[in-house]
Amino acid sequence: MVKFIAPSLTIVFLTLAAVKAQSPIVIANFPPPNAIPPTNSTEVQAWIKELGDLSGAPNIPLRSGAPPECANPPAEDECNWTCQQCPADDITACSAPNTWGLTFDDGPSTATPTLLDYLKTNKLSATFFVIGSNVINNPDTVKREITEGHHLASHTWSHNALTTLTNEQIVAEMKWTEKAVMDATGLRMKYMRPPYGDINNRVRFVLKKMGYIPVDWTGDAFDTNDWKMPGVTEDQAVTRFTKSLDDYVASDKAKGFYCLEHDLNAGTVALAQKLIPLGLTRKINIASVAQCEKDAEPYQAGSTAPMPTVSGVPPPSKTSGPGGNSTDSPTSGAITAAPNAAGLMSVAVAAMAVAGAALV
Ligand SMILES: *[C@@H]1O[C@H](CO)[C@@H](O)[C@H](O)[C@H]1NC(C)=O
Ligand SMILES: *[C@@H]1O[C@H](CO)[C@@H](O)[C@H](O)[C@H]1NC(C)=O
Ligand SMILES: *[C@@H]1O[C@H](CO)[C@@H](O)[C@H](O)[C@H]1NC(C)=O
Description:
This protein is mostly helical. Helices cover about 40% and strands about 5% of the residues. The strands form 3 sheets. A 3-stranded parallel sheet has the order 7-1-8. A 3-stranded parallel sheet has the order 2-3-4. The protein has a two-stranded parallel ribbon with strand order 5-6.
């Protein structure tokens, strides 16, 4: 008996080890960066099949332009955010009162580590809406973001306007980015921000099929305009955002806000270090999307790494943060296995019990 069970135990534990391990990123296994991934690859075809029927998506014509222009009348039930300011059920404001939902789009870039140093010194946690094409070139930066208590969310593979893409192209954009972050961190993202804020009911339908929750920003006042630099100077951006913060402080502050900000280059990262103190001196709390929404599970089922802990307050920067110390002894890694791995474990144990019973 024991002879038979021992090998199967070994297989079970090898399987769990495989679930726990993250696959190193092999750039050649991903589509070309900064372009819409082909939809006829085996990977994308498998993802589309897995999602099932996309034909229920609202039949709204594909838009054109990058970003799309607001020239034509909208289709019925289009509800686009960029042009109609129609958010449907997108998240558009941080749910916590008096709170700045700190978000950075378009990274990771070579400027990101400087921003991470600053956030660590100031014990702040942010959400990074990452671009898949950048993730595969900077996997260590996304790992660091998790280790230091930040929250990862998707900003697509190539930063194309989603209302201009087919349903299948949207799947390809999201799933390749999801895979890049999974390979780097073991976490399957749950929140996303549409590039240019460009989203309508067709795009929402496809995103929801994949389990994604769109997060827009809280209107034009909270667009830091960092992406317009150097056309907009740093001083102009600071002046504009100062007014937005003052207006916010004068409001009832019942809800927080989400900003539009980028870890794109040294300029935007330098601006971030001027804007954040303006919030802090006004006693506005600063938080990630996971913290704003008090979401204890800010990643989707299917993650292979443990779910990072999200508290109402940013984690202390001194410790390694929610991700835990990844250089812990190997046994502790196994013990703190993700709920998913734990679930698999009980399935495996149950399967063994059945197998055992059969053998007996
Ligand atoms: C996908 O389509 C492109 C362009 O039509 C073609 O060149 C390529 O060979 C196709 N790839 C697969 C895997 O079918
Ligand atoms: C959004 O709606 C506007 C009308 O308010 C329309 O002109 C525009 O084409 C739509 N844009 C997209 C990207 O769907
Ligand atoms: C993680 O823990 C190990 C062992 O306690 C320690 O040597 C290492 O410095 C820690 N690393 C970090 C990043 O805290």
